[in-house]
Amino acid sequence: MKQSLSYTYFLLVVSMLLWGGTWVAGRVLAQSMHPMSAAFLRFALASVILLFMCWRADGRLPRLKANQVLPVAFLGGTGVFAYSYFFFTGLQTIAAGRAALIVACIPVCIAVLSAILYRERFGPLRVVGTLTSLVGVSVVIADGNPLALLAGGVNPGDYMILGCVASWTAYTLGGRSVMKTLPPLNSVAWSSFMGTLMLLPAALSGGLAGDVAAARPVDWLCVIFLGFLATALAYFWYYRAISVIGASRAGIFINTVPVFAVVLGFLLLGEPIHFSLALGGFMVISGVYLTNRP
Fold it and tell me: What is the pLDDT of residue 148?
């Protein structure tokens, strides 16, 4: 049991590392490709890989029962289509750091709703851990001055990023319900496929054909990273963790994504790292530990 839990936590950390890398890959793609085109290519590739993984695991493509179609479509609509739409639309009007602070509210929402809907334990220690991790994220992305991110009031872009919070929270909690009757791999494969179908019209209207024709080799490398590693594998590992340790304990790990993003930005793009990263990163890790203590 201890070995299984350790392996689950290891895969969660690797998933967050991969999701941190999506900021770097997304920044490269944004130079030459429409956001919705990039989102469609990412999940189209992920869907093919995930369905192939299902075929290798079961010897056939996964099948859905009639009563599973709508719940899985809900996952595709929230975790793939809605999240992508709100994320890219919001970033058109607000800074990435401000958006990352708002998105960092996701684990808090997951934990609170898990306690209400599924009666997951949410004692004082987990409250302290959740808040510590959230403050640590704000320290990292605000370069030591979290209040600076709140300057300037609320604008429409903030509401779009709040849509990210709502859609990913719904995806996480909805996945917990779906996985009572469907394995994690099949849940992620079908939700990715359905979300890809929903993304197709938006991508076509955004110039998908032209983006594919003009894509550079580095763009395709980023698409492969996003589709295979950051989506097919990371989404599956995330859902697997939810099935093992619960939605709130798995969700709190999302607060490590901005930390990984800053580190990878330094290593791959030469972006500077300040003392605030060490302090905020320590707070994030401490919060994750407190939230996941037995």
Answer: 65
